[in-house]
Design a protein that fits this description.
Blueprint (H helix, E strand, L loop, with lengths): L7 H26 L8 H25 L3 H7 L3 H14 L9 H29 L5 H20 L14 H12 L9 H4 L2 H16 L1 H11 L6 H11 L7 H23 L13 H16 L18 H16 L1 H23 L15 H26 L10 H12 L13 H13 L12 H15 L5 E3 L2 E3 L1 H28 L7 H12 L14 H16 L1 H8 L19
Antiparallel strand pairs: 1-2
Length: 594
C-alpha cells in the first residue's frame, strides 16, 4: 500500500489540498443536512461540492504522473474506475438512457455518494498509515479516540440531531455522550431514545461501532477489500492492535473480525426483531422495529450498553430475547477477537478432520497435528465461566437476605446482571434498589471486566487470573506462575500486577474527585464509587448518579471513561515511550513482606 513519488514536495502539496477537500466535504454536508435550513444557499453548497469533485480528480491525475510505479498506483486505486463510470452514466444518461423525473437531483445524489465514499476511504486508510507512521503508537491511538469523540460531539450538537429543541445539548453533555459511545460505556446524561432524533441515534450507533472495533481496523478492512496489500510497517501496527502472533495472520484476522462482527450483529438483530412488539408502545412502525434491533445488536456485541428504551431492558425482563439473544451477544463480544478466532479455527479444523475421516480415511493421517485452544483462550473461557457462575450465585444469595430483593430466587435475573456487569451495562432491574452487598459484587465484576482484545474494559479476565495464580504459586512455594500445565513469564505477571495497581489508583483518584465535586449532593460514597467503577470498566450501569452530576463531575467521568477504554498501562506507556531499559542491575538484598 506504500507508494513512492518522484517529487516529495508536490506530494506534500497534494496531501494538504486533499485534507482541505475532505474537511470541505464534511462542512458542506453539515450545512446542508445538520440544520433545519441550510446555513448557506443550496446552490452554493452544491457548487462547492462539484468543485471538490474536480479537486479529487485533480489529485488522482497529479499522483498518477508523480508516482514511480504507475501499475502499482492503478492496482491500488482500481475502485476509482467503477465509481467514476457510475457517476458518468448517471450524469450523461439521466433522462436519456433511463427515465428519471429530476435529472439534476439524480446527478447531485451521485456526486454526494462519490464524495462520501472518497472521504470514508481516505479517512480510514489514513488511520492505518497514521498507526504505522513510527510515532508513539499509544499517543497515536489516544489522538484517534479524541478526534473521533470531538467529531461525534460536534455532530450531536447539530439541531437535527436533537429531539428537544427547548433544551439544546450543551458542549459538556455532547462530549459526555460521544465519549460514552466511543468508549462503549453506556453511561448517559440524556435519554438516547427520547432526546435524540434518528440522525443523532445513528451518530451514536456509528461511534459505538467505530469505538468497539476501532477505526484503524476499518481502515485495514477497507484496504483488503480494495485489494491493497498492507506494507510491513502497517502490518506490524495492525499486529500490535490485534495482538496477533505472526504477521502472516493479519489479513485473515482482519477479515475474520469484520466478517464475524457483521454476521453476529446481523443474526442478533434478526433474532431481536420479534422481541420489541411484546411490550406495547415500544415501537410504532416496522422501520422503527428494525432500527431498534440493529441498534441494540450492535450495542450488545460491542458491550456498549446504550439502549433506546429509557428504562433499558427492565420492561423486557420476562422476554426470552433478553436471555437467549442479549446474553450470548454480550458474552461473545467480551471474549476478545483473538479468542474467537482461535475457537473458530479449532472448530473448523475438527469439522474438516471429521469429514475427511469418513470421506477419505486413507488421507486422514496426512492432515498433520490438529489445532488446539491456546493458553489465552483457555484462561479467558475458564475465567469467564467462573465469573458468570460465581456472580450469579452471589447475587442470588445476597438479594435473598435483602430487605428489598431484586433477584431473590430469580436465576435468570441474577444471571443477566452477572453477565452484563462485567462488560455491557444493560439492566433488567433498577440498580439503585439493589442492596449494598449486591452493588459491591457488581463493582467487583465491573473492576475485572471483559477479556483482552475485546471492546470491554476493566483489568481484564487474564489479568485477574494471573494475579490469583500468582498468589496461589506463592502459597504453594512455586517459583513460576503456572496455568494449564504452562509457565507464565515473570514479565507478564509483572505487567498484570501493574495494570491492576494502576487501575485501582486511577479509580480511587476519580472517586476522590467526585466526592469533592458532588459534596453538596445526597449521594453516598458507595453510589459515587459505583458510578466511577462503571465508567472505568466501560460498563454503563448506573444508580442514577450520572444525570445529576455537576459539570466538573461529568468531566471527571469523561476522563475516567477514556482512561478505562484505553487502559491505564496504555496511558503510562504513552508517557514513557522514549524511556530505554537500563543496561545494568543492582545487587539484591532480602526484604520482609507481609
Amino acid at each position: 500500500m506504500k507508494l513512492r513519488y518522484k517529487n516529495s514536495i508536490l506530494e506534500s502539496i497534494v496531501i494538504a489540498v486533499t485534507i482541505a477537500a475532505v474537511l470541505t466535504v464534511g462542512l458542506t454536508f453539515v450545512m446542508l443536512y445538520g440544520f433545519d435550513r441550510p446555513v448557506l444557499s443550496e446552490t452554493l453548497l452544491h457548487t462547492i461540492q462539484m468543485g471538490v469533485l474536480f479537486v479529487f480528480l485533480w489529485e488522482k491525475a497529479v499522483r498518477f504522473f508523480n508516482v514511480e510505479d504507475k501499475r502499482q498506483f492503478l492496482r491500488s486505486n482500481w475502485f476509482e474506475a467503477p465509481l467514476l463510470l457510475t457517476l458518468f452514466v448517471v450524469a450523461v444518461g439521466a433522462g436519456r438512457w433511463f427515465a428519471i423525473a429530476h435529472r439534476s437531483e439524480a446527478i447531485l445524489v451521485a456526486v454526494s455518494a462519490y464524495l462520501v465514499l472518497q472521504v470514508i476511504s481516505k479517512v480510514c486508510l489514513s488511520m492505518v498509515v497514521l498507526a504505522a507512521s513510527g510515532l508513539n503508537p499509544t499517543r497515536t491511538l489516544i489522538s484517534i479516540f479524541v478526534i473521533l469523540i470531538l467529531a461525534g460531539a460536534g455532530l450531536l450538537m447539530l439541531p437535527k440531531a436533537q429531539a428537544d429543541r427547548a433544551e439544546p445539548l450543551s458542549l459538556t453533555d455532547a462530549v459526555f455522550t460521544a465519549t460514552s459511545a466511543t468508549c462503549v460505556t453506556g453511561l448517559i446524561v440524556r435519554d438516547t431514545g427520547g432526546d435524540f432524533t434518528r440522525m443523532g441515534q445513528i451518530v451514536i450507533l456509528v461511534l459505538i461501532q467505530l469505538g468497539g472495533l476501532g477505526i484503524v481496523i476499518f481502515g485495514g478492512v477497507l484496504a483488503l477489500l480494495l485489494g491493497q496489500a498492507l506494507s510491513v510497517k502497517e502490518a506490524v501496527a495492525m499486529q500490535d492492535l490485534l495482538s496477533a502472533a505472526t504477521l502472516n495472520r493479519i489479513g485473515a484476522m482482519i477479515a475474520f473480525i469484520f466478517g464475524g462482527t457483521l454476521l453476529i450483529e446481523a443474526v442478533g438483530a434478526v433474532l431481536m426483531y420479534p422481541m420489541w412488539s411484546q411490550v406495547p408502545g415500544t415501537v410504532a412502525t416496522t422501520d422503527q422495529q428494525w432500527f431498534f434491533s440493529i441498534f441494540h445488536a450492535v450495542s450488545a456485541f460491542c458491550n456498549a450498553g446504550f439502549s433506546l428504551n429509557q428504562r433499558s431492558l427492565m420492561d423486557f425482563h420476562g422476554s426470552w430475547g433478553v436471555y437467549l439473544v442479549f446474553c450470548p451477544l454480550i458474552v461473545i463480544g467480551g471474549l476478545g477477537f483473538g479468542v474467537l478466532y482461535n475457537i473458530t479455527s479449532v472448530c473448523v479444523d475438527r469439522i474438516r478432520r471429521l469429514v475427511r475421516r469418513h470421506s477419505c480415511p486413507e488421507e486422514f493421517f496426512q492432515l498433520g497435528i490438529s489445532k488446539r485452544l491456546g493458553l489465552q483462550s483457555k484462561i479467558v473461557l475458564t475465567t469467564t465461566a467462573a465469573l458468570i457462575i460465581g456472580g450469579t450465585a452471589l447475587l442470588m444469595l445476597l438479594e435473598h437476605y435483602s430487605p428489598r430483593p431484586q433477584a431473590d430466587g430469580r436465576f435468570l435475573t441474577a444471571l443477566f446482571q452477572s453477565i452484563t456487569a462485567r462488560t455491557a451495562g444493560f439492566n433488567t432491574v433498577p440498580i439503585e434498589h439493589l442492596s449494598e452487598p449486591s452493588k459491591l459484587t457488581l463493582m467487583l465484576l465491573m473492576f475485572i471486566g471483559g477479556s483482552p482484545g475485546s471492546p470491554a474494559g476493566g483489568i481484564k479476565t487474564v489479568t485477574f487470573a494471573l494475579i490469583i495464580m500468582a498468589v496461589y504459586a506463592t502459597l504453594r512455594k512455586r517459583r513460576e506462575v503456572e496455568l494449564f500445565k504452562r509457565s507464565v513469564r515473570l514479565v507478564v505477571v509483572g505487567r498484570a500486577i501493574a495494570v491492576a495497581v494502576l487501575f485501582m489508583m486511577m479509580l480511587l483518584t476519580a472517586v476522590l474527585g467526585l466526592c469533592l465535586t458532588e459534596r453538596h449532593s445526597d449521594w453516598t460514597l458507595v453510589d459515587l464509587a459505583f458510578e466511577v467503577t462503571s465508567a472505568m470498566g466501560t460498563v454503563g450501569l448506573s444508580t442514577g448518579v450520572t444525570p445529576t452530576l455537576t459539570t466538573a463531575g461529568k468531566w471527571i467521568i469523561i476522563m475516567t471513561m477514556l482512561i478505562g477504554r484505553l487502559g491505564p498501562l496504555t496511558l503510562l506507556a504513552a508517557l514513557m515511550f522514549n524511556f530505554k531499559p537500563a543496561g545494568y542491575d543492582y545487587p539484591s538484598e532480602p526484604l520482609m513482606v507481609g
